[in-house]
Amino acid sequence: MINNLKHNSIIDLLGSIIVKNMLRARCNGELGELTKSINEHRSRPLANPRSDRERFRDGPPEFSSLDALRVLWHARSHRADLDRTMALLADEPSRELLRRILAYRALGPRYVNLPSDTDNPLESQPQATACMVGPGDDPAFGTQLYRMGDITIEAWPLNIWADFFEQQYVFERDGIRIAVEPGDSVLDLGACFGDTSLTFAAAAGETGRVDAFEPMPRQVEVIERNLARNPALASRVHVHRLAVFDRRVELLFADGGAAAHPSHAGTIKVPTCRLDDWIRETGVVPTFIKMDVEGAESAALRGSADTIRRYRPKLAISAYHSLADLTGLAPLIASIQPDYRFYLDHHTTHAEETVLYAIC
């Protein structure tokens, strides 16, 4: 154990030295702006860090030189993507937010507060708690039953908070709105419990349609129960037990609850589809695509290239699963359809729930 501690201390020391040298190096362009932002935050530790106590039960984590090294190394080795993403983002709030998110990932919550409408979204959920009407039907999942106006949903408190209070798939800023509207044809890719599908169905109205893609069997069971509880909306929602990818294969998934993802150590066999193939086979014409597929976003987008190029749907794409997604998804989409305008927003006080919105 002592040897392990010494080994970790040496690695941390070396990481700190490398980080200091990287932060001292002169850089131009967006890498220079990011380095400047990290240096400014690093020089001013926060007196009152905005830390989610449900996420960090022992308080905000200490600075990790390895985290900082990971961010700086990525920014340097993917400098062209960083420059391109900043150029593609259509407003200064989006560009400043991306710098802030990267600084947070480098320094942690003791140095950078991430924007959110509430100081502690995972803990401060009195609105969601007030809407709870009973337990869910799967004790192992720990879901609860909520009544949200005319909609009854089995989900977790965070789902209710994100869908109904934070409304994380509705973007509104300076007269720009990217959201599901009446009559929209929505693809909910990574539907989890179907909570987003039901909110989309309500927003799309009687003339709208929602196709919900969710490959995990237990999650699909919750979706089906939620549809049965909401017959007025259920007719608009069509469930597909598929994962979206860049080719048709059978993947092994690890069951991580809401964060189920492809893994060599997985035990659940999941069929995948290319969205372009599915669109050709079904004739569905999407006008809004929401995507939260646990790190497979770039593959799913590549498999959706013809659809995006031809139909130019509104997009709400989760961008928080990796540094590569934060700096690479916008250039990927722009290479498919250059008419998109991009905006970024963030919906928690920690690293999760960054959404890239796009509209033509």
Automatic annotation (TrEMBL):
Alphabetical GO biological process terms: methylation
DNA-binding is among the record's keywords: no
Pfam family, one: Methyltransf_21
Molecular function GO terms recorded: methyltransferase activity
Annotated TM spans: none
UniProt domain Methyltransferase FkbM: residue ranges: 188-321
InterPro entries: FkbM_mtfrase, SAM-dependent_MTase, SAM-dependent_MTases_sf
Keywords of this entry: Methyltransferase, Transferase
Keyword Methyltransferase attributed: yes
Superkingdom to which the source organism belongs: Bacteria
PANTHER family with a match to the protein in the record: METHYLTRANSFERASE, FKBM FAMILY PROTEIN, SLL1173 PROTEIN
Protein name according to UniProt: FkbM family methyltransferase
